[in-house]
From TrEMBL:
Belongs to the NipSnap family. Residues 17-116, 126-225 form the NIPSNAP domain. Signal peptide: none annotated. This is Nipsnap homolog 3B. One of its GO terms (biological process) is mitophagy. It holds the Pfam family NIPSNAP. PANTHER family: NIPSNAP-RELATED, PROTEIN NIPSNAP HOMOLOG 3B. One of its GO terms (cellular component) is mitochondrion.
């Protein structure tokens, strides 16, 4: 018997992703990026960096966004303890960089069961589209949302990198990470999709479960694994 409170397929894989967004003080963006580029190897010695980007368009200026992968919550706890004891990381980067940061936000998210993390074929730009869905979880909006995403993928308007559903942070939030060759190719694909009846029909179905949405255009850092 299925409970009426079920929110969708059970999460069997313990792997999750930490989304971190840092808003930097005005005029401190370049200094921060130079520091993190020089010292990122100290941080990646402890856990896997999926990607690191600066925000080009969308929302607040002077912002960076990065994703970290963990096997489970125990793994993250071990990493955080190790970082706290890593004197080189603390003294060379963390403590000096705190004065450059104005605000920090983070979320914990899982890949949705029908998505896996894909690596783009070459360097490009990324779009993080964030959808605030109605309460009820994937059992309510999962299938219509999947059809809307796949409609874009199947027509080749953009390459899907991953679809994530929040576990901690703002609940009922879905992040879709896309890749395009350039901002112009992304714009062209978006305009074409708006005239595609199959995409329009799929999106129209999913918006019945949508509260709000926003997006950011992301430029990968030189040291980002996802380019």
């Amino acid at each position: 018997m299925c409970s009426s409170f079920a929110t969708g397929p059970r999460q069997y894989d313990g792997t999750f992703y930490e989304f971190r967004t840092y808003c930097l003080k005005p005029s401190k963006m370049n200094e921060y990026m130079e520091k993190i580029k020089k010292n990122i190897h100290l941080r990646t010695a402890h856990s896997e960096l999926v990607g690191f980007w600066s925000v080009e368009f969308g929302g607040r200026m002077n912002k960076v966004f990065h994703i970290w992968k963990y096997d489970n919550f125990a793994h993250r706890t071990e990493v955080r303890k190790a970082l706290a004891k890593d004197r080189e990381w603390q003294e060379q980067f963390l403590i000096p960089s705190l004065a450059l940061i104005d605000k920090q936000e983070f979320e914990i998210a899982y890949l949705v069961p029908w998505s896996k993390l894909e690596k783009p074929p070459k360097e490009g730009v990324y779009e993080l589209a964030t959808f605030q869905m109605k309460p009820g979880g994937p059992a309510l909006w999962g299938e219509p949302f999947k059809r809307a995403v796949n409609a874009h993928v199947n027509r080749g308007y953009s390459k899907l990198v991953g679809v994530f559903h929040t576990e901690y942070g703002t609940l009922n939030r879905v992040h879709v990470l896309w890749w395009n060759e350039s901002a112009d190719s992304r714009a062209a694909g978006r305009h074409e999709s708006h005239e595609d009846p199959r995409v329009v029909a799929a999106v129209r179905e999913s918006v019945n479960y949508l509260v709000s949405q926003q997006n950011m255009l992301l430029i990968p850092a030189s040291f980002s694994p996802l380019k």
